[in-house]
Amino acid sequence: MVARVCEVVNSNTRSALACFGIMGSAHEGDAVSDSNQDEVEAELIGFARGWAEAIVSNDAERIAEFADDDWVMVSESGTESGRRFLSLVASGELTHSAMDTVGEIRVRVHGDTAILTSRVTNTAHFAGEQFDADEWTTDVLVRRDGKWRCVLTHTTPARSDTSE
Question: Residue 15 region, left (φ>0) first, then alpha (ψ -120 to 50), else beta?
Fold first, then answer.
């Protein structure tokens, strides 16, 4: 499964946006609380793969198709709106060249809400500078009018000695 998550990296002298991805697959034991478990899981896998492809394509309009208008990203730096992320991608200031999953993804579906969690690495480029990240990410998706959209992305830096 591939899902995209974004984080704002702030410091005293600059603000940069780095994006991370989730790739993997749901496995036996990752219970989904929906009577159509397999169908919903397949739909989420398709959603996540499409979002990943959109982010790596650096196409803001394509990325926006996967995010809710109220999409927000939460990181150790605080919160940032998805709109800011999309505007940076549209301007070309922010690009992405790599996104990979480290290990398995955890998928949970609760009615019209899905939670995707995994450890991911990615490479982003902002204002001519490269940002490499290794983080635990959680995306909260909501199904509205039959379509999944990300409403919240939360990232936490991964320690190099942690695993699944």
Answer: beta
The structure tokens 């480290």 sit at: 102
Query: Helix-strand-coil percent breakdown of the chain, rounded to 5?
Result: 20, 55, 25
- Please state the pTM of the whole predicted model: 0.75
Strand 113-126's sheet: what is its strand order?
78-81, 67-75, 147-157, 129-144, 113-126, 94-110
Instruction: For residue range 4-58, list pLDDT tens digits in order.
Output: 333 433 332 223 333 334 433 333 344 444 457 878 877 887 787 787 788 889 9
Token pair for residue 153? 């992305």
CA distance 59 to 57: 5
Instruction: State how far the Cα of 160 lies from the Cα of 84, in Å rounded to an integer.
Output: 30
Q: Judge contact between 140 and 151, C-beta under 8 A.
A: yes
